[in-house]
Task: inverse folding
């Protein structure tokens, strides 16, 4: 039951961060890539497209992914 309240908030926050990220790519004040990455991480458990992007980033940058997993920033794989 707890995940049912967290999921809509996580999706809403992910969309907000994605919008901030796209705005940050155009505006010099915001860090667009940082906001995009946070939005992708928030949406990855629920949206397969973002999960594939996160999997690709894990393969492309294994040291960064290992560091993120150590701090529990990386979403866990479902079995």
Result:
């Amino acid at each position: 039951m707890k995940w049912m309240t967290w999921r809509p908030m996580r999706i809403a926050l992910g969309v907000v961060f994605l919008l901030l990220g796209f705005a940050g790519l155009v505006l010099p004040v915001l860090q667009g890539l940082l906001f995009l990455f946070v939005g992708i991480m928030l949406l990855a458990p629920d949206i397969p497209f973002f999960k594939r992007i996160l999997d690709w980033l894990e393969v492309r940058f294994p040291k960064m992914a290992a560091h993120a997993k150590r701090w529990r920033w990386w979403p866990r794989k479902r079995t």
Remarks:
- The chain has a mean pLDDT of 83.
- The CA atoms of residues 32 and 59 lie 22 Å apart.
- DSSP finds four helices and no strands in the chain.
